[in-house]
Design goal:
Blueprint (H helix, E strand, L loop, with lengths): L1 E6 L12 E4 L3 E3 L10 H6 L2 E3 L5 H14 L7 E5 L1 H10 L13 E2 L2 E2 L1 E5 L6 E3 L2 E8 L5 E8 L2 E5 L7 H8 L6 E5 L7 H7 L4 H7 L8 E5 L6 H11 L5 E3 L5 E3 L6 E2 L1
Parallel strand pairs: 3-4, 4-5, 5-8, 12-13, 13-14, 14-15
Antiparallel strand pairs: 1-2, 1-16, 2-3, 6-7, 9-10, 10-11, 11-12, 16-17
The structure holds zinc ion (2 copies).
One zinc ion binds next to loops.
């Protein structure tokens, strides 16, 4: 499995893009501002998007992908999301007020986008990858996704600060080679992290004691300007774990022997 990080920041700025992962050529996980760097052909090649939750930094690119595909002969883009996320996208984004409803507008072979409901624990197969959604706590209903193929298993937490059920769901996976997980704030912003349901380094370190798998950790969603403080605190908070701080443009290969990254 080849995963390209199109964006993994908790905000925008020079060189910073918000969350979006390209898996192979056809599957996208979240559609933050990172997708805006994709070429038109790459956008048209997409067949499926997994959406963790409705927050703007994870969905804004959907609007522009849909707009670009409208002028192509592409098949409908399947947008896989929980029912609450789908409802928010329909009510607040694709509502003819903020943006056209591209689930009504047609391109080559049907509507530009087609919503597909997903549920925690109900796996689906997309382009040879088995996708298992799992529930994560956040300020809105949210999911993480485990992606598995013959090479290994990679899981992405989306936005969360963790709870017992999330770790139980991850431990139920037969294996876990890499876990991409967020840390939005440094420890001194613990109250803000708790209120907005984002991790701090100390909180993640404490929560990880509940996980029995020992994946490599791929850390993301650091808020702009707070990266150095978060990285410094991870040395102690994540001692004993293999971890990396992701950046835009990284390519991740999930492998049974452990996750490698170039
Ligand atoms: Zn969020
Ligand atoms: Zn976010």
């Amino acid at each position: 499995m080849r995963i390209k990080v199109l964006g993994c920041s908790g905000g925008v700025g020079p060189g910073l893009r918000t969350t979006s992962l390209l898996v192979g050529e056809h599957l996208l996980v979240d559609a933050g501002s990172g997708v805006c760097d994709l070429g038109l052909d790459a956008m048209v090649r997409l067949t499926d998007v997994l959406v963790t939750h409705s927050h703007l930094d994870h969905v804004l690119g959907l609007a522009f992908i849909a707009d670009n595909r409208f002028r192509s002969a592409a098949r409908p883009l399947r947008v896989h999301a929980g029912t609450a996320t789908r409802g928010a996208l329909c009510r607040h984004l694709f509502n003819w007020s903020l943006w056209p409803d591209f689930s009504e507008l047609c391109c080559g072979a049907g509507p530009v986008i087609e919503f597909c409901d997903v549920e925690p624990g109900r796996a689906l197969v997309i382009d040879g990858v088995t996708v298992t959604p799992f529930a994560v706590p956040h300020t809105v209903p949210a999911l993480g996704f485990a992606l598995a193929d013959a090479d290994g298993c990679f899981a992405f937490s989306g936005d969360t600060n963790g709870d017992d059920a999330m770790w139980t769901a991850l431990d139920a996976l037969p294996g876990l080679d890499a876990l991409m997980i967020e840390i939005a704030f440094p420890d001194e912003a613990r109250e803000l992290g708790d209120a907005s349901r984002h991790f701090t380094p100390a909180r993640l370190g404490a929560e990880l004691t509940k996980l029995h798998h020992r994946p490599q950790l791929l850390l993301s969603h650091h808020k702009p300007g707070l990266e150095a403080a978060i990285q410094a605190q991870c040395h102690a908070a994540l001692a004993g774990w293999r971890y990396r701080h992701l950046k835009r443009g990284d390519v991740i290969f999930s492998e049974r022997a452990g996750c490698s990254k170039i």
